[in-house]
Amino acid sequence: MGVASAAPLTCARQSCRPRALRLPRLAVAVVVPLAALATSAQPYHAAAEAAPPTIQPDGVAFWDAEDGLMVATLTTPACIDGTSACPGGLVERTRNGGRTWQVVDRANKPLDSVAVAPGGVAWVTSGRCGPASPNACGSSQILVTSDGGSKWATVTSRTLVTSVAPVSATAAWAVAGASGAGFPVGTVLVRSTDRGRTWHQAGDPCHHTAGLAPWDVDFANPSRGWAMCVTQPATDMQAKALFSTSDAGATWHLQSDCLLPVSPRPPVDVGSSSCVGYLPGLQVRADGYGWTWSDRYGLAATEDGGHRWAQIAERVVVDDANSVLSASLVGKGTGFVLVSHAISGPGCSPRGCGPQLLFTADAGTTWTEVHHWKSPSEVASPSRRVPPPTMLQGPA
What is the pLDDT along the chain (396 residues), one digit of tens a residue? Predict the structure, then answer.
């Protein structure tokens, strides 16, 4: 049975963060000339705002160490403070490991996340909403490519989904359901086989841990996947339980959990998940190597499919200085992280304190900054000299 009639999510992943807990984030990135938007189906009009829109990177996903995609929101001061809708979103592609980017698609609403599957497949989702654009909550616009981003098909679904995990150009998993003050209560795990036009509930691994609901899902291939269940976040902490499947969701097995004292507990604690951090992202490879990242915690890695976790990148992701917006593994111990709004401390690169795209090939021991977006102060001072890319050291 489809879930199209279920109460829609009122916000997308990056905007579901509780306001009382969300770290302050500065508007950032590259000023976009208005001429560059002239070919958009619904162009931005300069008369509507006092300043041109800027790009705020939201997520990245890579097929390999060279080829990947990024989604970004076109922002203005008015949409950042919530008094008007943001002008739209961009999909950009890189063919050189993130050093340079080219716009390959545009949308007339913010784009929230991107996920890839083998064979040049990628799914991009939108549906973010706010006080200035309540109608955007009623549907989810999905962009799908099967050729690495050269051509895109647009699909509109009546079910607002988040955490989309594609396994092919036609099939994907996601999280859908209710939201609001009780989020994530009411969310469900769903699956689509028609490019996201319809979504159907696909079991509930979270029922094994009462009080938790689906928040994130990731599939390494059509059979092997993981689902993260969470409660409402508390200050700096959130109860979590990670489940895995090896039979396309027919059965799920608990890999690790961290349940706060107020949460109903299973007979024994499993694995080494941390309660610290909230609203986690997740990616695990078929060989069991994976990353998870969350606000107020940073980045952690597993080598056994999610049973044991260890923090990495403590010297480049610093609590209250910056956070990981998005991450993408391209090999065991090899991948990219999009670090947002570094403002002080070791997480702030010598190149500046705007968002950074970092790359590691040694499981987080060292990180190379491959791209840097300017902070507002840097945009205001275009003559500032920018040093060459920097190698950032991870934990000793």
Answer: 444 444 333 343 444 443 333 333 333 334 444 344 334 344 444 444 456 778 889 899 999 999 999 999 887 778 777 788 788 899 999 999 999 999 999 988 888 899 999 999 999 987 554 333 344 344 578 999 999 999 999 998 888 888 899 999 999 999 987 554 445 556 889 999 999 999 999 888 988 777 788 999 999 999 999 999 988 877 778 889 999 999 999 999 999 988 765 545 554 566 677 888 888 899 999 999 999 998 888 899 999 999 999 999 888 887 777 889 999 999 999 999 998 765 444 445 555 567 889 999 999 999 999 998 875 445 444 433 333 333 444 443
Backbone angles phi, psi at 378, to 5 degrees: -70, -35
Q: Which amino acid, one-letter code, is at 7?
A: A
Cis peptide before 222 (omega within 30 of 0): no
Q: Which residues contact 229 (CB under 8 A, 6 or more apart)?
A: 205, 206, 209, 212, 213, 214, 215, 240, 241, 242, 243
Please provide the distance, in angstroms rounded to a whole number, between the alpha carbons at the two ends of the chain.
52
**Spatial contact of 60 and 68, defined as CB atoms under 8 Å apart:** yes
Tokens of 209: 């841990």
Q: Which CATH class is domain 1-165?
A: mainly beta
